[in-house]
Amino acid sequence: MLYEKLINELKERKSVAQLTDEKGLLKCMLRGSIVLYCGFDITADSLHIGHILPLLSLKRFQLLGHKPIVLLGEATSLIGDPSFKTTERKFNNVEDIILWRKCISKQISFFLDFNHGTNSAEIVNNKDWFGKINLLKFLRDVGKHFSVNRMINRESVKRRILSNNQGISFTEFSYNLLQAYDFSVLYKKYAVVLQIGGSDQWGNIASGIFLTHRLFNKKVFGLTLPLLIQDNGIKFGKTETGTIWLDPKKTSPYKFYQFWINRSDEEVFNLLKMFTFLTIEDIKNIEKESIRNHDFYFPKRILADNITGLVHGEKGVSAAKRISSFLFSQSLDNLILSDFKQLKQDGIPFVKLLGNEDLQQALVNSILAPSRGQARNMISSNAIYINNYVQRDIKYFFKDSDKIFGKFTLLRRGKKNHCLLCW
Fold this sequence. Notes:
The termini are far apart. The longest helix is centred in the last third of the chain and has 32 residues, at 297-328. β2 (35-41), α3 and β3 (67-73) form a beta-alpha-beta unit. This protein folds into 3 domains: 2-225, 3-Layer(aba) Sandwich (Rossmann fold), CATH 3.40.50.620; 253-343, Tyrosyl-Transfer RNA Synthetase, CATH 1.10.240; 348-422, Structural Genomics Hypothetical 15.5 Kd Protein In mrcA-pckA Intergenic Region, Chain A. By secondary structure, the chain is α/β, with parallel strands linked by helices. It has a 6-stranded mixed sheet, sandwiched between helices. The radius of gyration is 26 Å and the shape is elongated. α12 (253-261) crosses α15 (297-328) and α15 packs across α16 (337-347). It is built from 18 helices and 11 strands.
């Protein structure tokens, strides 16, 4: 059966953390196409790589004829989800959230088809119903169904309550009810029967399933996905450090590409399953070829090419490859001005120079050398390169010909220590 195959494929792609009543969901899908949704709160002006898997999962359902809905939480963004946060989120102002919603809506269009007949994707905004809701009615009709005892025993809430330094405000405590209400409204307005989200959303999704059943006597379902975790063990988030953004102004296509290239040998094949539309058979063949040729860079390049192309297009992939070649194989051919701007943004360290510094001082300013004396020793030992050409003159002053596009010079110590000089 096609729909059973979809669930099994999601599992094979390591894209299912938890799933409520699999048999019931399959039975529902056998009756015809379903409507499903995933929610995103608007707490920054861009999505990040932690959002890619939920969007790709929506796309996999859409390709089989189901209708995906993306809920942008303009209202819930004013509250903040406390799930597995150690401290209360900083409140954002309404004007910023409205502007950020427009930015995020544009990014979502990279992943889903909004012109596909009856199963075209839609974006909805929960401010449309929360902006009109009556507080007393909400407490009577929704709040009465929830036990405080059960809510405080949710793992994400319990951690905050038991924290010595940080409790949980009533504002954040109420978030669970708001997300649960979202599910019930989407069921009523759009016949949504499935919510997907990261595994940290399991408690909120379960509450939405519970409330929808209480209000409409209807069984709905939830599916959670594994979280993408940073090297420090913390999930990627809009309010975390080290975030890899989808907006090229916040994370350059080059840095985005390098993130995937730098994944470990052990995880790359699971990431190919989760984050690409390559068939499982194709991925198995890539793995066999990689092992046979002892080439573990090959699958990483396929991974980076696929995901960067999806988010930044072929131009983004080409730019990332040009810059990579420039840095790692020392080829200056075909670099364009925007490539240097990406390097300056987040590719390598950079330093601004006034124009009267000699090579020794540039090495000190760029922290490639701790002192002018050390700089002289490095130059004398042929360890310093200007635009990938070794420079042996310890009294060297930069020339106009060293300034690519009249603005940039690549300074390198050894093979891997780079700094971009900006004039």
